[in-house]
Specification:
Elements lengths: L1 E10 L2 E9 L5 E5 L5 E7 L5 E3 L7 H6 L7 E2 L5 E2 L3 E4 L2 E4 L8 E2 L12 E7 L2 E10 L10 E10 L3 E10 L3 E2 L3 E2 L2 E2 L13 E4 L3 E5 L5 E7 L11 E2 H5 L4 H5 L5 E5 L8 E5 L4 E7 L3 E5 L9 E2 L2 E2 L6 E6 L14 E2 L5 E11 L2
Antiparallel strand pairs: 1-2, 2-3, 3-4, 4-5, 6-16, 7-10, 8-9, 11-12, 12-13, 13-14, 14-30, 15-29, 17-28, 18-21, 18-23, 19-20, 19-22, 22-25, 23-24, 24-30, 25-28, 26-27
Catalytic activity: alpha-D-glucose = beta-D-glucose
InterPro entries: Ald1_epimerase_CS, Aldose_1-epimerase, Aldose_1/G6P_1-epimerase, Gal_mutarotase_sf_dom, Galactose_mutarotase-like, GH-type_carb-bd
Pathway: Carbohydrate metabolism; hexose metabolism
Length: 349
């Protein structure tokens, strides 16, 4: 196994570094110090052809100007916070609104736009990078100095593991995720509509017109959101269900996971033969089928359009701080926020 470090570009006069992790199977994962962004995940198809299966760019400028969170870590709080505010111990905290009336993915200039410190990891059976960043008290409206460490490791079993750690010196809220867009066709040859998705989930969160949870849990039985036995993504998004139409004719919903660390999320592209298994200790996964990706930019020579990727954002429930029935995302002094997700790539037999 090996790891290669090089300069990816510059941001405000500071160098942005890229780290490429590679195992003996030829799988490569590249990530950069800007936003802990995963720029490339290169894995073999059923014929052994190595291709990239995530959306991304080859330069810093595109990530700053055009990126809809491609491959980035979202925080301090992933997802939307309704009305850009929350209450903690009787104090109201106002957050910048960067998504209509909502606060989205930590706000403007959030974790995805920060330069992180990085340290290489070399052990017997894995290589990786540990990113670290201190979010100052008051940054984007959040209380507390938050110390964050995020580790990416690649092993010989074609597993990419992401571990998140955080501590604070003042009670605050934290809910982190990675926002990679997966497309198993390889190098964007096709969209993800024919990808087959299986999710062990019996409930989703209902969304309102502002795409934030209403607080209601919806059973997925006899709905387009039932992926328990696996089905093609196009079968779900072609539905006339009001929740599908609400988010631009697609999926952008939190799925409560019924199982953990047991192949609870599986994505398959039968044409390429690639298979992705996601296992996590998180409560939910936000599945986003890139319904809003109609933007005037190219992704490595391919014009951006809807359904080019699917995000599998493992996390706590969005907007949980504003819903008493949800498990809160509160982190207090003396506590540690710690969670992990593993992405395992293989091919159909």
């Amino acid at each position: 196994m090996k790891i290669e470090k090089k300069v990816f570009g510059e941001l405000n006069g500071e160098k942005v570094y890229s780290f490429t992790l590679e195992n003996r199977n030829g799988m490569k994962v590249s990530c950069i110090t800007l936003g802990c962004i995963i720029t490339d995940v290169i894995v073999p198809d059923k014929n052994g052809k190595l291709e990239n299966v995530v959306l991304g760019f080859d330069n810093v400028e595109s990530y700053i100007k055009d990126s809809p969170y491609f491959g980035a870590v979202c925080g301090r709080v992933a997802g939307r916070i309704s009305n850009g505010q929350f209450e903690l111990d009787g104090q109201i905290y106002e957050l910048p609104k960067n998504d209509a009336n909502n606060h989205l993915h930590g706000g403007p200039e959030a974790f995805d736009k920060k330069l992180w410190d990085a340290q290489e990891i070399n052990v017997i059976d894995a290589v990786g990078v540990e990113f670290s960043y201190v979010s100052k008290d008051g940054e984007n409206g959040y209380p507390g100095n938050l110390s964050v460490r995020i580790t990416y490791t690649l092993n010989e079993q074609n597993e990419l593991s992401i571990t998140y750690h955080a501590t604070t010196d003042k009670k605050t809220i934290v809910n982190l995720t990675n926002h990679s867009y997966f497309n198993l066709s390889g190098d964007l040859k096709d969209d993800i509509l024919s990808h087959k998705l299986q999710v062990k989930s019996s409930e989703i969160l209902e969304l309102n017109a502002n795409v934030v949870p209403t607080g209601k849990f919806m059973n997925v039985t006899n709905s387009p959101f039932d992926f328990n036995t696996g089905k093609k993504i196009e079968e779900a998004i072609s539905s006339t269900h009001e929740q599908i139409q609400l988010v631009g004719q697609g999926v952008d919903h939190p799925f409560l996971l019924d199982d953990h660390q047991n192949e609870e999320i599986v994505l398959i592209d039968e044409k390429s033969g690639r298979k992705l298994i996601v296992e996590t200790d998180q409560q939910s996964v936000v599945i986003y089928t890139s319904n809003m990706l109609e933007e005037p930019f190219d992704i490595r020579g391919t014009k951006a359009r809807r359904y080019m990727g699917v995000c599998l954002e493992t996390q706590g429930l969005p907007d949980s701080i504003n819903h008493p029935k949800f498990s809160p995302c509160i982190l207090d002094t003396g506590e540690e926020y710690k969670t992990s997700t593993t992405y395992r790539f293989n091919v159909l037999k």
